[in-house]
Write a structure and sequence with these properties.
- Helix 1 packs antiparallel against helix 2 and helix 2 packs antiparallel against helix 3.
- The chain has a 3-stranded antiparallel sheet with strand order 1-2-3, covered by helices on one side.
- About 40% of the residues lie in helices and about 25% in strands.
- Strand 1 and strand 2 form a beta hairpin.
- By secondary structure, the chain is α+β, with helices and mostly antiparallel strands.
């Protein structure tokens, strides 16, 4: 699976992603950052499967996820995750 890293303001976000015709079919996000609640990272990965690998769509989806679930990622924003995913997609 294509892999990329993004050095965010607080830690590194690592992304493995597999696409099928421009749609995310598998994704794994890890790194040295904190996300609260802790199970939210698994939920985010599940949410992203089936999503078009386009910056605007990913940005909207992740921002909604943050708002609806009241996600906290100290010193990281939804855009940090979008950038990490897009770097993996481009590989």
């Amino acid at each position: 699976m294509p892999y990329a890293e993004f050095k965010a303001p607080k830690g590194i976000i690592k992304v493995f992603v597999k696409l099928a015709e421009g749609v995310i079919s598998q994704i794994q996000i890890s790194g040295d950052f904190f996300m609260y609640p802790e199970e939210a990272l698994d939920d985010l990965e599940q949410l992203l499967v089936g999503t078009n690998a386009e910056r605007a769509e990913l940005s909207k989806l992740i921002e909604q996820f943050y708002e609806q679930r009241q996600i906290q990622t100290p010193m990281l924003t939804p855009d940090c995750f979008v950038e990490a995913i897009m770097r993996a997609v481009r590989r």
